Amino acid sequence: MLRPFLFTVFLAIVFFVAKQYFAAFWLHPGWKILLVFFGSVSILTQRLVETGLQGDRSRFIPLYLAATVARMILGLAFVGFFLFRHIEQRRTFILDFLVLYICYAGFEIWTLTRNLRRDS
Fold it and tell me: How many domains would you assign to the chain?
């Protein structure tokens, strides 16, 4: 559970530095909300995967797929909620969301393959 938290802190530092020292036109003003959302979903996904790796290993694949589907549905609901509220700079918000979605999905896959190599 520490890795997703550290990854979120790293991204928060990168976003903060980009906002303070560069003209970050690609950075939505609500980037903190995006990071909190993705950090919490990433921790939830990791907890589900860890549950699948303990005890009965045949439960791992269904739990990982369920976590992936849950991440996608929660992401769609999150974006839909903010678009329904008529958030400003919609394109920037969606672009930042998609970039963070890909970053967190890649991070989770990398973390998962590290754990699988260690456990096999």
Answer: 1
